[in-house]
Amino acid sequence: SILAARTALYRSVRISAGISEEASLAALKQDRMQLLAVAAAFIAMFVAACGAAHWQLLRITRARLEIAKAKDIMDRALASMADGFLLCDAQDCVLAWNKRYLELFPWLTPMIQVGVSFERIVDVTAENLVPGADAAAQRREWREMRLALHRSGNGTFEQALADGSVIHVIERRTLDGGTVGVM
């Protein structure tokens, strides 16, 4: 029991009060139980959020592994092709090519990379296929013809190379508006 005593205005009168310890701590115990329940709920929510984050990370990791596997399969398939291969996106920027493509057009080796524009490839190719300072008009004409065929999305033509060989070029539109070319 907890007791308290005070003197009153009259010294001979004392006021005292008492309460049992259980009664005085009952409100504190109730508050403590509510606090523990709230803390347990927050812990449960934190554990659930961590579990969901872990599950998402596992899904992302699996998806990345599947993408890497598919890319590896695609790279091996492109490397085994006897034909040259070039893939451009809908904005006419290079996405992929194979080794054979660079064997056919070796002058592109130093400059080809993902994101380079097809027009840049055509400009460099024009300089190599139509050499000479006095051939600017022929280069411009070849460039316009090549870009027109490429943009048509259904280009099929033959091209003589600098070494005298002739290649057959087929270009088609992809479903997303890009272009795939096989030489």
Explain how this protein is built:
By secondary structure, this protein is α+β, with helices and mostly antiparallel strands. Helices cover 52% and strands 20% of the residues. Strands 4-3-7-6-5 form a five-stranded antiparallel β-sheet. The protein has a two-stranded antiparallel ribbon with strand order 1-2. The protein is rod-shaped. The model has no long low-confidence stretch (mean pLDDT 90).
Strand-helix topology:
Elements: E1 2-7, E2 14-19, H1 21-80, E3 85-88, E4 94-97, H2 99-104, H3 118-129, H4 136-152, E5 156-160, E6 166-173, E7 179-182
Antiparallel strand pairs: 1-2, 3-4, 3-7, 5-6, 6-7
Count the DSSP helices: 4
* Spans of at least 5 consecutive residues with low confidence: none
The count of β-strands is 7
Describe the largest sheet: 5 strands, antiparallel
Give helix and strand order, one letter per element, not per position. EEHEEHHHEEE
Q: What share of residues are in beta strands?
A: 15-25%
In helices, the fraction of residues equals: 40-55%
Order of strands in the sheet with most strands: 4-3-7-6-5
Q: Please state the structural category.
A: alpha+beta
Terminal residue distance: 99 Å
Shape: rod-shaped
- Average pLDDT score: 90
- Determine Rg (CA atoms, Å): 39 Å
